[in-house]
Structure prediction request, 143 residues.
Amino acid sequence: MYLTKLVYASRVSPGVTGPTVKEILAVSRRNNAQDGITGSLVFNSKYFLQCLEGPRDAVNRAYLRILKDERHHDPQILDCGELLSRNFGAWSMGYIGEGPLSRETILKYLPTDRFDPYLLTAAGAQAMLLELGQAAFALQGNT
Prediction:
């Protein structure tokens, strides 16, 4: 079985708040565990940045659900391709809120100190997700 990764950004719809994101995470974690998908989600009040990893058909189905989800606007794929091994294998869906999005971290990957994932390169998106994911995992454990 080949593994696929898909990294995308989307704009957060008005009215999406922390409790809404908790609902998204609960459903995503359940669905992803059933479908063999792992990944990580970065959220601030304006944007989502997410990586999905798993079997190609399962990742495609998950992304199609996201495209139909009214809580996401203007979704754009930043990176997609085959993986040799998972980067987020410990998480059915890891979560990174605004806390770890420090100015220092953002400036490593973006030309501005504002978190705008649409400005990320494919390599920058993957590197940022890995750095934030490792930091969040160390702080939170498997959540």
User: Anything to note?
Assistant: The chain has a mean pLDDT of 90. The first strand starts at residue 3 and ends at 12. The CA atoms of residues 26 and 93 lie 9 Å apart. Strands lie at 3-12, 38-43, 47-55, 72-83, 94-96.
